[in-house]
Amino acid sequence: MGLKKRIRLIRILFLLIYDMIKNLPLLNEDIENNFMVCKRICHRILAASGAHIETEGSEKLPDTRFLLVANHRCFFDVVILLAALERPVRFVAAKELCRYPLLRRYLLSMQCIFIDRNTRDFRKIKRDIGEISRALDQNNLVLFPEGQCTYGRKKMGRFKRGGFMGTAGKDIWIVPCFIKIDSFENIGRWMIPEGEVRVVTGAAFRPEEAESKNVSGAKSGALAAYAWKQVHALQQKTGG
Fold this sequence. Notes:
Blueprint: H1 3-23, H2 31-49, E1 51-56, E2 66-70, H3 76-84, E3 90-94, H4 101-109, E4 113-115, H5 122-136, E5 141-143, E6 173-187, E7 190-201, H6 208-212, H7 219-238
Parallel strand pairs: 1-7, 2-5, 2-6, 3-4, 3-5
Antiparallel strand pairs: 6-7
Helix pairs in contact: 1-2, 2-3
């Protein structure tokens, strides 16, 4: 990467940090207010990166609570979704993000859920599932079921079933979403999108639909596999 591009990318990252510090006093206990603060920051950062968002299928979002599941190629997927969505959402986030005090403050302001992706402690797993379940009783939630970024690779990883366990017994809709990014610039694992970014929303479905389609596996595993197929279909549709 040339020196000019590296300087530009560093500038964008510092602009993100500057905007987060500047807007910190605007955060309060109102999740809708905090969502809009984050949304404005994300729009500015994407504009600075040269990316522009196109949305497709946003009218398919149900009026009631939903769990939106999306592919996850880079950290900026969160920035993209916050800029694209019009209704407040909470995110299921990796607990490692708590290491960054400024980012942690913003995620907490939107009542995000921090989970331990690597634990094998049943008590912690049960606690995380309970947090997701309680969140779905009150708010819309975003889950990246691959569990980690694919760092630009187009091939989606399999969807892990853990996050779907929190949907058990819930009267909610699950919304598949595909984030298509044409090109990246990156510094190590910090990948910043350029050019066109498309956020494509598919038809919402109920958790029990996975069972009706005879997807094999336990309920949460079947749901994860079915959700993967829906997101993959959107990927094929967009040529992503």
